Amino acid sequence: MMVIRKLIAAAALVLASVTAFATPQFSGETRSSDITSFSNAGYYLWQDDAAPSSWHLRWTGVGAEVNPVSWTGSIIFTNDELGVVLGYSFENTEDTVTAITSLIPGSDLVVFTSITDNSGGVDGLDFTLTGGTELLEFNLGSSIFTDRGVNLADPGISSEGIFIGAGLSGTQVLTSISDGMVYQQFEVAVLEPNSIALLGLGIFCLALARRRQATSA
């Protein structure tokens, strides 16, 4: 319980910092079929290609120099669209996952803590979104992350040990340190299909208008 209370307090600080610091946003591809091979230590995040409302977060300490490896962090659902959240392969008695609805008006929160070995053990979370438009803010900590100091200015710095989507892409992150744990913070914007289609139509119309303007000039 003490660990969870600390996590909730840390996540509350993260919520407060959203208005103070611009958080780097990942704009690449998040979708993938099920990822089952984890060859590098770190966090793996992907959106289910067949069921886009389903998301998966995994972490593994495979090949890390320390053993055991500690993991802790939070996910903020800024539009209050959290559906179901389940822990994946939580085996250690100290592993916990807690969902908190409406920590502040309009936002849901998931906090977790976990311990894995460095020989390939994998823990994680599976969660669903109840709506099509959401802004996910990840604050992911691990004892294997390198201390690169505190970086709270957008666009941040390149991530370490974060792999997103089928391409296992990295992203820009803010970094902070708490209780000896290094955290990396970034956002992922989720748009419903209709919003994506409207955005594409808007870009097309803008390009067409500019082309006509150039022709008439």
Task: Write a concise keyword list for the protein shown above.
14 strands, 42% strand, 6-stranded mixed sheet, 217 residues, alpha+beta, 8-stranded mixed sheet, 2 helices
What is the radius of gyration computed over CA atoms, rounded to a whole number of angstroms? Answer: 19 Å
Reported for the largest beta sheet, the result is: 8 strands, mixed
Look at the structure and give the mean pLDDT.
Answer: 84
Distance between the termini: 69 Å
Low-pLDDT segments: 194-208
Indicate the proportion of strand residues: 35-45%
| Number of E strands | 14
Order of helices and strands: HEEEEEEEEEEEEEEH
Counting helices, strands and paired strands, the structural category is: alpha+beta
How helix-rich are the residues, as a percent range?
10-25%
What overall geometry do the principal axes of the alpha carbons give?
Answer: globular
Total helix count? 2
What report would you give on this structure?
This protein has 217 residues and is α+β, with helices and mostly antiparallel strands. The protein has 2 helices and 14 strands, in the order H-E-E-E-E-E-E-E-E-E-E-E-E-E-E-H. The protein has helices at 2-18, 193-216, and strands at residues 25-26, 31-32, 42-48, 54-60, 69-77, 82-88, 96-104, 107-116, 122-129, 134-142, 157-158, 162-164, 172-178, 181-190. The strands form 2 sheets. Strands 1, 5, 7, 8, 10, 11, 13 and 14 form an 8-stranded mixed β-sheet that branches. Strands 2, 3, 4, 6, 9 and 12 form a 6-stranded mixed β-sheet that branches. Strand 3 and strand 4 form a beta hairpin. The longest helix is centred in the C-terminal third of the chain and has 24 residues, at 193-216. The radius of gyration is 19 Å and the shape is globular. The termini are far apart. The model is unreliable at 194-208 (pLDDT under 50).
